[in-house]
Amino acid sequence: MFFLIAEFSQLFTYMVSPELEGSIAGLFGQQLYHVKWEGMHFWDLIQPFFMFIVAFAMPFSFSRRMAKGDSMPSVTKHVLVRAFLMLFLGWAFYCIGPGKIMFRFQNVLCQLAVTYLLAFLIIGKARVYQIGFSVILILVSEGLYRFFPLDGFNQAFEPGKNFGAWFNILIAGKEDGGHWAMFNAIPTAAHTIWGVLAGQLLMSDRTSMKKLLILIGSGIIGLVIGYGLSPFTPIIKRISTSSFVFASGGWSLLALALCYWLIDIKKHQKGVLFFAIIGMNPLFIYLFAHVGGADLIRKIFLPFSNLLFGWSGDLAAHIILSLNVLSFLWYICYWMYKRKIFIRI
After folding, report:
1. pLDDT in tens, 224-280
2. 90 lies in a domain?
3. 21-44 confidence digits (pLDDT tens)
4. What is the overall mean pLDDT for the chain?
5. CA angle centred on 258, ends 58 and 29, rounded to 5°
6. Residue 61 lies in a domain
7. Is 306 part of a structural domain of the chain?
């Protein structure tokens, strides 16, 4: 969430400036944008991380609800309503800008609505069943891309000429300009299912070291499968190929393992609250920034930033302005946290 909000501040826009080319900041900046087609940058992992960690919280959340006396039908109703609202809000984003109804469902909220529901439907099943179901979803997607029979859409890994493009046209009437596939919600449901499994693992009575080793081992398996498949099925986030799902899932598990080792086992907890501040109100700050809140803050800060930092040059002044916008977005979350205002669906 912190990186998503930083994107709205436009900080990353200036980190790929020609003036930074070849520098450490420039090399880091390149990792903060999606690969155009084949390959994977750090930024391509943000959505898998997000979908994985939302699902990771599901076992904890549902167990607390049940402990408070909620019935399973009540929890199911909550899940259905939450999935619908995420789908609706994600879809509404596409209609706000042009001011007309558009049927597009590629953004993270729309995708999460589907994957969240699929993960919930099997959350009470055995671990082997959940893993098997996630693999089946990946294989079904792989099969559709490889063997889709319609001419013009039977080139599995070519932009605009594959099953994902056909599905976009079926739903929206046209292909997405960036070739992002709406169908991605099906294979990437594996990320959400694996997040649930990770949450169930950490809730279990296994020792901390055993939990850590399982997370690391599972992450390594995901990387081996993902990168091992890449010569045959290229890693492409925009259509969520099987190799991408496995590789990004592997990185998600390893990232969780690192956090678990640092924060829970080694007790290095200083600074955690700084990031948790945004994580406690993720939906609000995402919606606020997305619908123009970040741009409004930027316009308010711009004249003062130019007055105080204009002497430093255009690039430095823009970076300072973006950092101020990011800081203010963080402060809004902090203000809400101090007043115990948490907006959830």
Report:
1. 999 999 999 999 999 999 999 999 999 999 999 999 999 999 988 888 888 889 888
2. yes
3. 666 666 777 778 888 999 999 999
4. 89
5. 100
6. yes
7. no
The domain total for the chain is 1
- Contact predicate 309/315, CB 8 Å: no
The count of other CB atoms within 10 Å of the CB of residue 190 is 31
Note the Cα 14 to chain centre separation in Å: 22
Q: Is 160 left (phi over 0), alpha (psi -120 to 50) or beta?
A: left
Q: 296 Cβ partners below 8 Å, 6+ apart?
A: none
- Supply the pTM of this predicted model: 0.90
Q: Is residue 224 domain-resident? A: yes
Mean pLDDT, residues 185-190: 96
User: Tokens 């678990």 label which residue?
Assistant: 260
Beta-bridge mates of residue 236: 38
Q: What is the pLDDT of residue 180?
A: 93
Please tell me the distance from the alpha carbon of residue 314 to that of residue 310, in angstroms, as a whole number.
7
Please say whether the beta carbons of 179 and 239 come within 8 A.
yes
Distance CA 295, CA 250 (A): 35
Q: Measure the CA–CA gap between 27 and 185, rounded to whole angstroms.
A: 31
The 3-state secondary structure of the chain reads CHHHHHHHCCHHHHCCCHHHCCCHHHHHHHCCCCCCCECCCHHHHHHHHHHHHHHHCHHHHHHHHHHCCCCHHHHHHHHHHHHHHHHHHHHHHHHHCCCCCCCCCCCHHHHHHHHHHHHHHCCCCCHHHHHHHHHHHHHHHHHHHHHCCCCCCCCCCCCCCCHHHHHHHHHHCCCCCCCCCHHHHCCCHHHHHHHHHHHHHHHCCCCHHHHHHHHHHHHHHHHHHHHHHCCCCCCEHHHCCHHHHHHHHHHHHHHHHHHHHHHHHCCCCCCHHHHHHHHCCHHHHHHHHHHHHHHHHHHHHHHHHHHHHHHHCHHHHHHHHHHHHHHHHHHHHHHHHHCCCCCCC
- CA 267 → CA 60, 128, 187, 208, 280, distances in Å? 20, 32, 35, 12, 21
The parent domain of residue 217 ranges over: 44-269
